[in-house]
């Protein structure tokens, strides 16, 4: 999967940037580094990376603005790095187009695993999927990877799209966080429940709060209001 795949690492700490670049190069990726917001946007435009590892705190302008500008030009998977385990920051990051996040400090092994998981979700194909999956006001096109609510197109990240598709295919059924982690994130353990919760909140912000019901202590269910 790593052959010829390009990753843009956006990190202003040279030591951290080099450590990430060295590990990801050893994993078989082609790496480019940017150290501030403006150069990150420019290198995303010219280099057309397959994924961006993006620090939240950057000189020039921050990672949120980088993500907004990059996604406006060309959708690309983004793994956001943050030293602040603050839910508001994470939700804003997801809302502007980040697919996943990892909180500093992290191991290089975890970083590589998370990158591979995001890339797997992007490359995942659904050959048996119907042309359009309809769930109340939602129209989900698996082939074009487009979502509309009440005829209005809604931009979702690859992870958000996979999560919504999983919920829609099981409409009316409560899916536990562990099931969602396995089916959407390819995680075999339940250590990433925060990721599920954050992405559900991002979906609600984009699609409306009336479609996904929380079953406290269990998981989530896509329900179409009467």
From TrEMBL:
It holds the Pfam family Trans_reg_C. The keyword Signal does not apply. It comes from the Bacteria. Residues 130-224 bind DNA. Signal peptide: none annotated. InterPro entries: CheY-like_superfamily, OmpR/PhoB-type_DNA-bd, Sig_transdc_resp-reg_C-effctor, Sig_transdc_resp-reg_receiver, WalR-like, WH-like_DNA-bd_sf. The modification 4-aspartylphosphate is found at residue 55. Gene3D superfamilies: 3.40.50.2300, 6.10.250.690, Winged helix-like DNA-binding domain superfamily/Winged helix DNA-binding domain. The keyword Coiled coil does not apply. Keywords: DNA-binding, Phosphoprotein, Transcription, Transcription regulation. Residues 6-119 form the Response regulatory domain. Residues 130-224 form the OmpR/PhoB-type domain. PROSITE patterns: OMPR_PHOB, RESPONSE_REGULATORY. PANTHER family: DNA-BINDING DUAL TRANSCRIPTIONAL REGULATOR OMPR, REGULATOR OF RPOS. This is Response regulator transcription factor. It comes from Actinomadura vinacea.
